[in-house]
């Protein structure tokens, strides 16, 4: 039976060695930290936070396999398979489906100015080939693709497009999607705007900082559901203090460095990303202490 894919998901980080190879045991440790320590409901695998677009096809498959083997069937699992190469997306989608992922997700095709019909055909071909449910990954700040409410209606006409990972600051459009498609899944993708997204009625959220701050994310989400928006905002303030510092020091190296403080072999970011700057060490120490990270 298919799992209900609501709740909170870590946008899974991936550890690399100095040669850009995946650190297998470190990846298992990151997976277990997200589920066991941060108390999250599931994993969003091979998204932006996994440095996915810097990986080759075999590395992407390796991440899918390790993550799924580590959690088994008890955890909600979404596989981001989007690629500029539709055939690679199909290959990855089939592979993740065979592994038992509950759904696939795919970023809107980017870089080239694709028409909406081309984007729609991309998604429909991916679904036809994989026979799995699909969650659109809408992140217009990085892709340049803005999907209108009419275009969402056209995409959602396919019964296997079950929802959207909504990483956009347009809360008017979010409200319109929620009202128009009450049965579709909406997962918020901006960690720093979780309280606003929760108020808007999203079904859950996917976040990179949830790898180290998932407990606060759950507090925010559940407080809003209980109607205690004021307290949720207070926790969002703390969360955004953390996010502001992490972004300023470099999101991926800093998140991995925080995991190292927990004894996790979180490795390095993949080049051309730079490793954590030692000049920020005392600042990171203070951040970890101040917010019990």
Report on the structure:
This protein is an alpha/beta fold. It contains 12 helices and 8 strands. It has helices at 24-37, 57-71, 86-99, 116-130, 140-143, 149-156, 171-180, 194-199, 210-225, 229-249, 251-261, 281-291, and strands at residues 7-11, 42-45, 76-80, 103-107, 134-138, 161-166, 185-188, 204-207. An 8-stranded parallel beta barrel has the order 1-2-3-4-5-6-7-8, surrounded by 4 helices. The mean pLDDT is 97.
Layout of helices and strands:
Blueprint: E1 7-11, H1 24-37, E2 42-45, H2 57-71, E3 76-80, H3 86-99, E4 103-107, H4 116-130, E5 134-138, H5 140-143, H6 149-156, E6 161-166, H7 171-180, E7 185-188, H8 194-199, E8 204-207, H9 210-225, H10 229-249, H11 251-261, H12 281-291
Parallel strand pairs: 1-2, 1-8, 2-3, 3-4, 4-5, 5-6, 6-7, 7-8
Report the portion of residues in β strands. 5-15%
Distance, first to last CA: 36 Å
Average residue pLDDT: 97
Individual helix count? 12
Helical/strand content category? alpha/beta
Helix content: 40-55%
Total strands:
8
> In angstroms, what is the radius of gyration?
18 Å
The topology string of helices and strands comes to: EHEHEHEHEHHEHEHEHHHH
For the report, how would you describe the main beta sheet? Answer: 8 strands, parallel, barrel
Major sheet strand order: 1-2-3-4-5-6-7-8
Q: What is the overall shape?
A: globular
Write down the oligomeric state: single chain
Which stretches are poorly predicted, pLDDT < 50 over at least 5 residues?
A: none
